[in-house]
Write a structure and sequence with these properties.
alpha+beta; two-stranded antiparallel ribbon; 5 helices; DNA Binding (I), subunit A; nuclease; HNH_5; about 180 residues; 5-methylcytosine-specific restriction endonuclease McrA
Amino acid sequence: MGSGESFPALVLNADFRPLSYFPLSLWAWQDTIKAVFLDRVNVISQYDRVIHSPSFSMKLPSVIALKEYVTMDRRPAFTRFNVFLRDRFQCQYCGEGYPSEDLTFDHVVPRSRGGRTTWQNVVTACQTCNLRKGNRMPRDCHMLPLEPPDMPSTYRLQENGRAFPPNYLHDSWNDFLYWDSELES
């Protein structure tokens, strides 16, 4: 196979739901083939592309399902990206949506005033609102977050991620991905 060719497989949990939506749960074709031979996955759909070895040939899987259910973590990691995902890439002060590279996070209670870097005190902010709020308390500058910050569940982050489909979706994946769009009637 050429070095630039990519045939990722969509990875579903044993309940046929994607392991994650954002980023989408994908495995490289090499990892997928290994999992097939180790009998850890069921092949649900395939590409037209065939790989060969001296003793066998097979179509590359495009959708696989794990044979054993993987329990999702109950507590998501506190990361900048997960804060943006919790807040749906929307400034919690002005309400505008932005790409992640144009966002920052803001401490509702500023660190200089004892605020901590926790789920309950950090919100997504655009750079304009973050500069405007500065190190003031929300009541002092009349800038209250649109939604009170909290620790989201992994399920909530997954559901929020469904609103942001990736640039590339193979046709064989469509039956397993449910993006926030109307279905054809």
